[in-house]
Specification:
Number of helices: 29
Strand content: 5-15%
Largest sheet: 6 strands, antiparallel
Distance between the termini: 23 Å
Helix content: over 70%
Mean pLDDT: 80
Length: 1069
C-alpha cells in the first residue's frame, strides 16, 4: 500500500493543504522548526488510526476556531491491484455525520475492515513505534519491545486475517486471572472471604440466641434505676441554684447599694451648683485668659511700629537717578552674557580661520579665495559622471558574472564526470556478478517475470502451511472419533468424562504433531503460523466440543468429517505439485526449499533493480555532461565580448572629463565627492566671515552699556574703584552699579512703607483701648461666680463642685441598683422572702450550701451517665438479636458458595493447561523468527557504522539485544553512545519493516528528524541505507527534517528522491 498524498482541512497550523506528488520510494521534506513537520506526522497517525479513546496524552493539534479538524489520505494498493482509496477522518463529526469515511476511486464507500486489511492488520502501537516514528520513539528501546509490536510482525500472515497469535493466549490469561491470581482480588479469593464471613456469622448467631432472656430482664432493671436517679439529681441542683443566686445578688447588687447609700448621707453640698456649673467656670476663665493675651500682644505690636518708623530715612540722590538705574538693571543679564561670549567669539574666529586654511590645503597648493569663488561644478556634470559610473559598473558586473558562470560550469562538468565514473564502475561490478534465476545463460529477465515468480512462491508458501494444518486436523479428528465410539459404548456419565479426557489427549496429539513437523522438516517462517493455528484450534476446539457435545457425537458424523478433510488434503497436494513444477523445484517441495527459493528470488529482484537504476543514472549523467559543456562554450564567448565593451566605456569617459575641465586622474565615482569638497571649502569661507561680523556687533553692545553706567554712577555720587587698565566687563564697575541699585531700591521701599506704618500705628492704639475694657469685665464675672458658692479661689470652687458631682453619681447608682434587684427577684412571696434573707448578709453560708449541693449533683450525674451507657449497651445487644439472620439461611448460602468455589478451581486448572501449551509454542516461534530480522538489521548497522559493529545478536532474555564489534566483543545497549544507540534502533526498525512487508504487505514509513544526533559520516551512510532500503523493498519512505545538513546528505546519497520544502502551510518541490 502506497500513500499518494493528502488533503488537510485543519490540523494544528496546517490548513487547507492538498499534496499529491509523492514518490513510491524516498521522499524528503525539509523546513524550519514549527513549519509543520511533526504536525504532518501526527496527521498521518490520526488519519489512519484516530485519537486514542479517553483522556490520553496524545497531541490533538486543534486548528483555529471555525476550521474543520481533520482531513483525507489518498492511498493506492498497486501491488495487489486493489485500486485507489480515500480515507477521510475528522475529530468530531457534525450532526448525522461520520468521523471516518473510506471510499474507493469509484465513490463506493467501504467499511473500516477494508482499512484494516490495507494496513496489513497493523495496529496503532505498531504503526507509531515502527513505521511512523519521531525522535521521541526512536530514543526509547521500549517502543520496540512494547507488547504486541514484534508479535504483530512475526505472526503476520497467519491464517485468520493476520491477527496476532497472542490474542488467544491473552484471552486465556485474562479469564484465568479473573478466577485466581495470587493475592489479587479475584473471584476465587472473593468466594473464600465470603465463606469465612458466613462461618463467623453462623457461630455468633448461635451464641446470641442463647443470651436473649437474661438481657431482657437486665434492661428493665436498668431503666427503673435511671428514672429514680434523675429525680434526685434535679432536687440537688435546685437547692444549689437558690444558694448561688443569694450570694450573687449580695455581691453584685444589694451590698454595693448599701455602701452607696452610706456615702450619700456623709456628703454636704451647696444648693447654688447646677448641672452646667463646670462649663460656666471654664467659659469665664477662658474669656479672662484670652482678653489678657490680646492686651499683651497689642502692646508689643505698638512698640514694634514705633521702631519701624524711626528706621524709614530718605536718600534724595538715589531717587533722582531711579528710572535710569532700573532701565540699566534690566540689561545686566544680557551684559554679563555678552562679556562671557567675548572669549568664545575670539575662539570661534580662530577656529574658522584654521578650518579655512586646512580646507584650502586639502584642495591643493594652487587654491586661494579668488580661485574658489570662480570655480563651479554644475549638476549636469555630476549627473553625466554618474551615468558613466553606472555603465562602467554594469560592464564590470557582466564580466564577473560570465567568469563566475564559466568557473561553475567547469566545476559541474568535473563533478558529473567523477560521478559517472563511479556509476560506470558500479555497473560493471554488477554485470560481473551472477544474476540468479533465468540469467545463467545471459538471458535478461523482466521485472514482470520476477513479480510473477514471487506471486507463485507466496501462493505455494500458503498452500504448504494449509496442508500442515489439514494434516493436524485429520489426526485430531481420527483420535476424537475413536474416543467418541468408546464413550457411546460406555453409555454413562463416566463415558462423558472419558470423552473430555480424550479431548485433552487429542489436544496433546495435535501439539505433538506440530512439534514433530516443526523439528523434522526444518519449518521456520512458513510452518510457524500453521503451528500456532493448529495448536490453538486443537486445544480450544476439542475442549469445547468435548464439554458441549458430550457423548452425542456419532461415529458416522466423525467419519464424514474425516472424509472431507482427506478430500481437501488431496486437492491441496495436487495444487502444490503443479506449482512446484512451474517453479522448477523438486516435488513435494519442503519448507526449506521454498524459503531458499524466496531468498534467492529477492536477491535477484534487488540486483536487477540496482542495475536498471545504475544504467539510467549513467544515461542521465552523459546527457547532463553534454549539456553543461555546450553551455560553457557559449559563456566563454560572452566573457570576451563583455571585456571589449568595458574597455570602450573607459575610453569615452577619459575624453569627456578632459573636455569639461575635470582633473585627468579623477574617476567617475569621485566627481560627486570632488564637488562636495569644493562646497565644503566655500562653507568654511562663509563661516569665517560670519564669525568676524558677530564679534564686531558683540564689542559694540558691551561698550555702549558700560558708558551709560558710568554716567549714572557719577550723577548719584557713587565711587568706582580704579582699574589698572581699560577692560570690557570691569568688575569694579559692576560692583559700584550693584551698590547703586541697592540704594535705589531701599529709597523706594522707605517711601512706600511710611504711610502704611503710620496708619497701622493708629489702628493698634484704638484696638488696645477696647481690649483693656474687655479684660476688666471678664475678671469681674469670675469673682462673682466664686462668691455665690462661698469659694475663695478657683481651686476651692473646683473642690466644692466635685462633691456636688459625686452626690449626683451616687444617687443615680442607688436608683439603678434598686431597679436591678427588683428585676432579678421579681414580685410575690418568694421575692419578699429573698429580700428578708438578703438583709441578713450571710454570704459565706450561702456559698457553702451551693458548693455542697453542686458537688452532690455532679456525683449523682456521673453515676447516672454510667447507668445510661450500661442500659444502652443492653438495648443494642437485644436489637442485634432481633435483626440477626436465620441460621438456616446462612448455612444454605455457605453451601452454595462452596459449590461455586469448587467449579471455579476446576475451570482455572483447565485454563492453565491450555495457556502453558500456547506460551511454550509462541516463545519457540518468536525465537525462530528473530534471526531473519537481526540479519537484515545487522547488514544495515554494519553499513552505517563503517563495519565497526558487523552483527546484532539476541540476548539470553527474549526481546533484548546486544551488538558485536569487529573484534568479536559484545556490547549491551547501555554501553553505546546516544547516537550509536539511535542508529541501532533505526536499523532494527528497518529489519522489522522488511519482515512485515514480506509477510503482510507494504506500509509507508515516516521518520521525523531521526538523524539529528548522527555525525556527518554516519548520517550520510544512514541516508544511503534508507535510499537503498526504499528501492530494494519497493517501500515508500517519508523523511521529515529541519536540518539543511540532513537535506543535503539525502540529495547527495539519493539523487532520484523527491525533495519538498515547507513554506506557508504547504510544501513545494
Amino acid at each position: 500500500m502506497k500513500l499518494r498524498g493528502w488533503h488537510i482541512a485543519g490540523f494544528g497550523s496546517l490548513v487547507d493543504w492538498r499534496h499529491e506528488k509523492l514518490s513510491n520510494e524516498l521522499n524528503v521534506f525539509y523546513g524550519p522548526n514549527e513549519a509543520g513537520k511533526s504536525t504532518l506526522l501526527g496527521f498521518l497517525r490520526f488519519a489512519l488510526f484516530g485519537f486514542r479513546p479517553g483522556n490520553t496524552k496524545d497531541a490533538k493539534y486543534p486548528p483555529a476556531p471555525g476550521i474543520r479538524h481533520g482531513g483525507s489520505l489518498f492511498l493506492d494498493e498497486e501491488e495487489s491491484g486493489g485500486g485507489a482509496f480515500t480515507v477521510e477522518r475528522v475529530a468530531a463529526a457534525g450532526r448525522g455525520g461520520k468521523k471516518l469515511r473510506i471510499e474507493r476511486a469509484s465513490g463506493e464507500e467501504v467499511s473500516e475492515a477494508e482499512l484494516t486489511r490495507l494496513l496489513g492488520h497493523a495496529d496503532r502501537d505498531l504503526f507509531n513505534n515502527v513505521f511512523a516514528f519521531s525522535l521521541t520513539e526512536l530514543q526509547s528501546f521500549d517502543s520496540l519491545t512494547e507488547k504486541g509490536v514484534q508479535d504483530h510482525i512475526f505472526s503476520a500472515g497467519i491464517t485468520g486475517a493476520g491477527r496476532s497469535a497472542r490474542d488467544a493466549l491473552d484471552q486465556i490469561h485474562k479469564e484465568a486471572d479473573q478466577l485466581f491470581k495470587g493475592r489479587a482480588k479475584t473471584r476465587a479469593s472473593i468466594l473464600v472471604e465470603e465463606i469465612a464471613t458466613l462461618d463467623e456469622s453462623l457461630q455468633a448467631g448461635r451464641e446470641r440466641a442463647r443470651a436473649y432472656p437474661k438481657l431482657a430482664e437486665r434492661e428493665s432493671e436498668l431503666k427503673a434505676q435511671c428514672v429514680a436517679l434523675r429525680s434526685e439529681i434535679d432536687g440537688r441542683r435546685s437547692a444549689g441554684l437558690r444558694a448561688r443566686k443569694l450570694g450573687d445578688l449580695w455581691r453584685e447588687v444589694h451590698g454595693p447599694m448599701l455602701e452607696n447609700m452610706r456615702q450619700l448621707e456623709a456628703l454636704i453640698v451647696s444648693d447654688e451648683f447646677a448641672a452646667d456649673s463646670r462649663d460656666r467656670l471654664d467659659r469665664f476663665v477662658a474669656l479672662l485668659e484670652r482678653t489678657g493675651e490680646q492686651v499683651a500682644a497689642t502692646d508689643l505690636e505698638t512698640r514694634k511700629l514705633a521702631l519701624h518708623l524711626e528706621g524709614l530715612a530718605a536718600d534724595p540722590e538715589a531717587l533722582a537717578v531711579r528710572d535710569a538705574v532700573l532701565a540699566l538693571e534690566r540689561d545686566v543679564g544680557l551684559y554679563e552674557q555678552q562679556c562671557k561670549d567675548v572669549t568664545s567669539s575670539e575662539q570661534l574666529v580662530a577656529v574658522r580661520e584654521s578650518g579655512l586654511r586646512d580646507a584650502f590645503a586639502d584642495l591643493g597648493p594652487d587654491w586661494d579665495e579668488a580661485r574658489l569663488r570662480t570655480t563651479h561644478i554644475s549638476l549636469s556634470i555630476t549627473d553625466e559622471a554618474t551615468r558613466y559610473e553606472e555603465r562602467l559598473d554594469a560592464a564590470r558586473d557582466k564580466v564577473r558574472d560570465f567568469e563566475r558562470k564559466l568557473r561553475e560550469g567547469a566545476e559541474r562538468v568535473a563533478e558529473l564526470k567523477e560521478t559517472r565514473d563511479v556509476e560506470v564502475q558500479s555497473h560493471q561490478d554488477g554485470e560481473a556478478l551472477g544474476r540468479g534465476v533465468g540469467e545463467a545463460d545471459g538471458e535478461d529477465v523482466s521485472s514482470e517475470d520476477l513479480d510473477q515468480r514471487a506471486a507463485t512462491l507466496r501462493a505455494l508458501h500458503a498452500n504448504v502451511a494449509r496442508r500442515a494444518t489439514l494434516e493436524v486436523q485429520l489426526d485430531s479428528a481420527c483420535a476424537l472419533m475413536g474416543a467418541t465410539q468408546r464413550a457411546n459404548a460406555a453409555g454413562s456419565s463416566a463415558g462423558a468424562n472419558r470423552l473430555r479426557l480424550a479431548a485433552l489427549s487429542a489436544a496433546g496429539l495435535g501439539a505433538g504433531t506440530a512439534l514433530v513437523l516443526f523439528a523434522n522438516n526444518g519449518f521456520q517462517f512458513s510452518t510457524a503460523p500453521f503451528f500456532i493455528v493448529a495448536l490453538a484450534t486443537t486445544v480450544f476446539g476439542l475442549i469445547t466440543a468435548a464439554w458441549t457435545r458430550g457423548a452425542n457425537e456419532t461415529p458416522v458424523t466423525s467419519a464424514l468429517n474425516i472424509d472431507a478433510l482427506e478430500a481437501d488434503l488431496a486437492t491441496l497436494n495436487e495444487g502444490i505439485d503443479a506449482a512446484a513444477k512451474t517453479l522448477g523445484i523438486e516435488t513435494p517441495p519442503s519448507a526449506e526449499i521454498i524459503e531458499t527459493e524466496t531468498v534467492a528470488l529477492e536477491r535477484v529482484r534487488r540486483d536487477h533493480a540496482e542495475r536498471t537504476h545504475t544504467r539510467r543514472q549513467i544515461e542521465r549523467l552523459d546527457a547532463d555532461i553534454a549539456r553543461v559543456e555546450k553551455t560553457n562554450r557559449t559563456v566563454s564567448k560572452s566573457v570576451a565580448s563583455s571585456e571589449q565593451e568595458l574597455e570602450t566605456i573607459n575610453g569615452g569617459w577619459t575624453q569627456w572629463a578632459e573636455g569639461v575641465g575635470l582633473p585627468a586622474s579623477l574617476v567617475p565615482r569621485n566627481v560627486e565627492r570632488f564637488a562636495g569638497e569644493i562646497k565644503t571649502v566655500r562653507a568654511h569661507l562663509d563661516a569665517r566671515d560670519q564669525a568676524h561680523t558677530e564679534q564686531a556687533s558683540l564689542f559694540g553692545a558691551i561698550d555702549n552699556w558700560e558708558a551709560r553706567v558710568r554716567r549714572v554712577l557719577a550723577d548719584a555720587e557713587e565711587q568706582v574703584a580704579e582699574s589698572p587698565r581699560a577692560l570690557r566687563g570691569d568688575p569694579s564697575l559692576i560692583t559700584a552699579f550693584t551698590r547703586l541699585v541697592r540704594r535705589v531700591r531701599d529709597a523706594d521701599e522707605c517711601e512706600r512703607q511710611r504711610p502704611e506704618v503710620e496708619r497701622a500705628a493708629a489702628e493698634v492704639a484704638g484696638r488696645a483701648t477696647t481690649q483693656q475694657a474687655a479684660e476688666r469685665k471678664a475678671r469681674d464675672d469670675v469673682d462673682e461666680l466664686f462668691a455665690r458658692v462661698g469659694a475663695r479661689d478657683r481651686e476651692d470652687y473646683l473642690a466644692k463642685l466635685a462633691d456636688y458631682e459625686r452626690k449626683t453619681l451616687l444617687e443615680s447608682k442607688v436608683g439603678d441598683q434598686v431597679a436591678e434587684l427588683s428585676r432579678r427577684i421579681g414580685l410575690g412571696d418568694e421575692a419578699v422572702e429573698i429580700r428578708s434573707e438578703l438583709e441578713t448578709g450571710r454570704v459565706a453560708v450561702w456559698e457553702a450550701e451551693a458548693s455542697a449541693a453542686e458537688s452532690e449533683a455532679a456525683r449523682l450525674q456521673t453515676e447516672s451517665d454510667e447507668l445510661v451507657r450500661t442500659h444502652r449497651d443492653v438495648e443494642i445487644q437485644i436489637d442485634d438479636l432481633h435483626g440477626s439472620n436465620d441460621v438456616g439461611t446462612l448455612e444454605l448460602n455457605r453451601s452454595s458458595l462452596q459449590q461455586e468455589l469448587n467449579e471455579c478451581i476446576a475451570r482455572w486448572r483447565e485454563l492453565q493447561v491450555a495457556r502453558g501449551l500456547i506460551e511454550r509454542t509462541l516463545e519457540q516461534f518468536e525465537r525462530e523468527r528473530q534471526p531473519a530480522v537481526l540479519q537484515e538489521a545487522s547488514h544495515h548497522f554494519a553499513t552505517v557504522t563503517g563495519g565497526r559493529y558487523p552483527k546484532i545478536v539476541q540476548s539470553t532474555e527474549l526481546g533484548s539485544f546486544s551488538v558485536v564489534d569487529a573484534n568479536g566483543q559484545r556490547k549491551a545497549l547501555d554501553e553505546l553512545s546516544r547516537g550509536t544507540a539511535e542508529q541501532l534502533y533505526v536499523c532494527i526498525r528497518l529489519g522489522l519493516i522488511a519482515e512485515f512487508c514480506r509477510r503482510a504487505g507494504q506500509l509507508p514509513v515516516a521518520m521525523d528528524d531521526v538523524l539529528v544526533n548522527f555525525d556527518d559520516a554516519r548520517a550520510l551512510a544512514m541516508a544511503t541505507v534508507l535510499a537503498d532500503f526504499s528501492q530494494r523493498n519497493s517501500c515508500q519512505v517519508l523523511v521529515f527534517t529541519c536540518s539543511s545538513r540532513t537535506r543535503d546528505l539525502f540529495r547527495q546519497s539519493a539523487p532520484a528522491a523527491l525533495h519538498f520544502e515547507f513554506g506557508n502551510n504547504a510544501a513545494s518541490s
